[in-house]
Amino acid sequence: MKYVDAVQVQKRMNFRLIVNTIAKIIFFLSTVFGLVVLGILIYRVFSDGIGWINMDFLTGKLSTDPEKAGILGAILGTLWLMVVVAPVTMFFGVGTAIYLELYAKKGKLRSFIQTNIANLAGVPSIVYGILGMTVFVRALDMGNIVLAGGLTMSLLILPITIVASQEAIRAVPNHLGEASYGLGATKWQTIKNIILPAALPGILTGAILSLSRAIGETAPLVVIGIPALLIPFPGSIFDKFTVLPMQIYYWTLDSSLVEEYAYLASATIIILLLVLLLLNTTAIIIRNKFQKRY
Amino acid sequence: MRTNNEPVHVQELISKKKQSKNLFLKFEKAIPIILFLIASVSVFTTIGIIYTLFSETIEFFKQVSVVEFFTGTVLKPLSQDPKFGVLPLIMGTLTSTVIAMLVAAPIGLMTAIYLSEFASERIRKTFKPLLEILAGIPTIVYGFFAFTFVTPLLKHVIPGLETTNILSPGIVMGIMIIPMIASLSEDAMSSVPNAMREGALALGATKLEVATRVVIPAAFSGIVASFVLAISRAIGETMIVTIASGSSKNFTFDLTQSMQTMTAYIVEVTGGDAPAGSTIYYSLYAVAMTLFVFTLLMNLFARYVARKFKEEY
């Protein structure tokens, strides 16, 4: 008497293997799906916009005439915004990370701050915009200048910067610090001379990545009220300004009125993506080149 | 080399040394306090957000009743007889989020399964950075894509589609959050120990069976958390819906129509330069408060799920 029907088992096994193969193909296709969309997106933007990029576009002023419109104002605005955002987030981000990793005792206070940071990271960017509009633009009466926008953006990317810096500091092995203590260095000397230099590549990588988030972010600035009008180029952090994403926003909105605006938006997107690509490549190079493994 | 012949007092030198050492120690002691003040900026940010939203929302509820706000299906802030029901905005937000999740949840999860269970090391190493690029594209670019590419494309399929509609931004938002779900779920799946996979494989299971019956149940909490975080992200997403979904405050189930989300309403009101103190101005904060509470609850829930139901191996 046979307990196992070999033919039946073989059939069943074949079926299961076929299902397995089909599933594998479907899973592969869904993985490729995202990339195909990415390809279409980039192809569309480049084929529409590349013809509009020339020196006049890069160095020209904003204009209602699409043939004359340039984005130098937006480029300068983005740079000025970074002049505020980069130092402010680095200072508060790294400072908070040092406190949490090296000074704060494990306990309620530390986990409270930590939980708070995790929650802040999940707050929609537009809510930061409302905070910035209420506090910086209206209560402190700054108006919609670079400083107000920059501080808002700094608060927005602060949680990511803190978490990245924390990871970088945590990755520095204990024995480095202990050797420094052993030589008689104080805590701050150890942090300043040993731990921070060792963690610097990781901190910089994280900071650059969060800056690139700030460069591409639009919603908080829309809420703060960046004018769509023609304004003079910003010359300091106290001037009114516009940035690349805002320019894309206004041109996309108006593309139903003037067809050429869609091409201008595409051209601006190309510039924005190139800036982000440059930043991200820098971050990757820093990570690969300077990150020591201990 | 000392050139002058003044006598040097050892006592003096010692006290000088002590003084500088004291100063140094004081500085050393001040450092934790300074750093604590820096760290408290993040706490003050939270307090700032909650305080601004809360105080202005209370002003709003002095002018519009809570019941009208949360049960009203009509939102007409600019009409002669203004109505402030938030339901059309919640409807718009939930509709776009559901569409986004219908796109992102299956595709993101299948991507995660492929990368974690089927793909070779080389394929994984090429695909993951590419997906990260997708995640790094600014949302304004997705908005542009939805408005100028996906909507015209969908018009070929659905002739009745309006130029601004909720369907197209929903789909694009889904594409935007695919990498988020894929990467978080993949992390959860990768942390399932190999011994469990090998045990199942040794019993004759196919890779698919290992994935669906061993890995997914083991990584379930992480996967659910990734979905919840993705939903929270979709609820808070602003630019895609602002551009591609228009500003009609429709209370409808018709996906081909323009619907406004909470985030898009905030953009519309702030862009319109609502005078401070007007009901419209305060309504902005009430909507933002609703949005904030929604996303906060989602995030807390995600972390709760991830921690509470985490299987330890």
From TrEMBL, chain A:
Single Gene Ontology MF annotation: phosphate transmembrane transporter activity
Listed transmembrane segments: 21-46, 71-100, 120-139, 145-164, 261-286
GO biological process: phosphate ion transmembrane transport
Membrane topology type: Multi-pass membrane protein
Entries under InterPro entries matching the protein: MetI-like, MetI-like_sf, Phosphate_PstA
One CC-aspect GO term: plasma membrane
Domain of life assignment: Bacteria
Stretch forming the signal peptide: none
Location of this chain's protein in the cell: Cell membrane
Location of the ABC transmembrane type-1 domain: 75-282
UniProt main location, coarse: membrane
PANTHER family membership: PHOSPHATE TRANSPORT SYSTEM PERMEASE PROTEIN PSTA, PHOSPHATE TRANSPORT SYSTEM PERMEASE PROTEIN PSTA-RELATED
Family indicated by similarity: Belongs to the binding-protein-dependent transport system permease family. CysTW subfamily.
Record's protein name: Phosphate transport system permease protein PstA
Organism this protein belongs to: Cerasibacillus quisquiliarum
TrEMBL record, chain B:
Keyword Protease among UniProt keywords: no
Subcellular location, principal: membrane
Protein name: Phosphate transport system permease protein
One BP term from GO: phosphate ion transport
Record localization: Cell membrane; Membrane
Family: Belongs to the binding-protein-dependent transport system permease family. CysTW subfamily.
Membrane disposition: Multi-pass membrane protein
Domain of life from the UniProt record: Bacteria
Stretches assigned to the ABC transmembrane type-1 domain: 90-302
Primary role: Part of the binding-protein-dependent transport system for phosphate; probably responsible for the translocation of the substrate across the membrane.
Database matches in Pfam families: BPD_transp_1 (PF00528)
GO cellular component annotations of the record: plasma membrane
Organism name: Cerasibacillus quisquiliarum
NCBIfam families per the UniProt record, alphabetical: phosphate_pstC
PROSITE patterns: ABC_TM1
GO molecular function: phosphate transmembrane transporter activity
Parts of the chain that traverse the membrane: 30-54, 86-109, 130-154, 166-189, 210-231, 280-302
Assigned keywords, A-Z: Cell membrane, Membrane, Phosphate transport, Transmembrane, Transmembrane helix, Transport
